[in-house]
Write a structure and sequence with these properties.
- It is a single chain.
- Helix 6 crosses helix 7.
- The chain has two domains: about 70 residues, Ubiquitin-like (UB roll) (Roll); about 180 residues, Cell division protein FtsQ/DivIB (Rossmann fold), CATH 3.40.50.
- The strands form two sheets. It has a nine-stranded mixed beta sheet with strand order 6-5-4-7-8-9-10-11-12, with helices on one face.
- The chain is α/β, with parallel strands linked by helices.
- The C terminus is likely disordered.
- It has nine helices and twelve strands.
Length: about 325
């Protein structure tokens, strides 16, 4: 049978490679590769030594330099935290080197304080840690209904936006004079707790009444003991001296004006109001404290009033006339 295919020839290059690869040549090739590796190792060692030396120099110049020891915390004036509070909250060692402090960690620790709404921390050479914070301004104390008011350090405060936070020691001096807002506990809003935002409509209604009182007299809020929504149509305000006043959910400007007039009249006539319902525009219900059921008569003769008394009289006219006017 005749063969039609020719035998394939092996490539000359492969044959030549096999013939020239002797043990001696392989050894020299290995030495060449080893030499290159040694050069790379030497270069890497030099670079590593230089880096280590540079790091030692940096540590000596900055981290171990006594000139950069933390000397003070420069904290802006605020109502929520003091310098000692910064050290304690952020876990700062007073003997630390300024460059050894973890600025990011300190910032996050301070941002976790519910009484602070913003924090910025930076180094200021040679030895100052600058801390700038924005404190939440307390609007009132807040508590659940049927619980005692908790006006003390650690008690719960609320700001204008409904953010809750515990009262700090530096805030208590002024916050202790603020009223308490009693709010219902509902399934939707959950428990009133620190670090939460209260979205209850009852809080907004209490705030509106507080705003109306402050608009009439900035110091009036410090004479309010508590406010709560008594039912679906009224708010109950209790003063520091125990007077209970009923307000509607709106029309607070008129009701506050009548409330002030009633208090002024009672003070001038030397009697004490126990309760007053300011919702009606006419025939306002008022009850007096025991022992003061009727106002005492004016002494006669009445001397001519001074200009100051005339102005006060125009502002606080007869109680019945004011409260029954439309």
């Amino acid at each position: 049978m005749k063969k039609t295919s020719k035998p394939r020839k092996r490539p000359q290059s492969s044959v030549l490679q096999v013939r020239v690869m002797s043990p001696r040549i392989a050894w020299f090739s290995f030495l060449k590769i080893l030499g290159r590796s040694a050069k790379y190792a030497v270069v890497a060692g030099i670079i590593g030594a230089a880096g280590w030396g540079a790091w030692k120099g940096i540590r000596h110049a900055f981290y171990e330099n006594p000139d950069f020891r933390l000397q003070r915390v420069d904290l802006n004036e605020n109502s929520a935290i003091d310098e000692f509070g910064v050290y304690q909250t952020a876990g700062i060692d007073p003997q630390s080197n300024l460059f050894a402090l973890d600025i990011g960690h300190i910032t996050e620790r301070l941002k976790a304080v519910p009484a602070l709404s913003a924090v910025h921390v930076e180094r200021q050479l040679p030895g100052t840690l600058a801390v700038r914070v924005v404190a939440r301004p307390p609007r009132a104390w807040v508590a659940e209904e049927n619980t005692p008011a908790n006006r003390k350090i650690g008690g719960l405060l609320v700001d204008h936006d409904g953010h809750t936070f515990p009262c700090t020691a530096t805030q208590f001096e002024t916050a202790g004079k603020l009223p308490v807002l009693f709010l219902p506990k509902t399934d939707d809003s959950g428990e009133i707790a620190s670090g939460k935002v209260i979205a209850q409509p009852e809080l907004a209604r209490c705030f509106r009444l507080l705003d109306a009182a402050a608009a009439a007299d900035a110091a009036a809020v410090f004479r309010i003991e508590s406010i709560r929504q008594a039912n679906s149509w009224s708010l109950e305000l209790v003063t520091r001296d125990g007077l209970t006043a009923t307000f509607g959910l709106g029309d607070h400007e008129r009701q506050i004006a009548n409330f002030r007039a009633a208090i002024d009249h009672a003070s001038r006539e030397n009697y004490s109001i126990a309760t007053i319902n300011l919702i009606p525009k006419e025939n306002v219900p008022v009850t007096l404290r025991e022992g003061g059921a009727t106002p005492p008569p004016r002494a006669l003769p009445v001397p001519e009033p001074s200009p100051t008394e005339l102005r006060r009289s125009r502002r606080s006219r007869d109680l019945d006339t004011l409260l029954n006017s439309r």
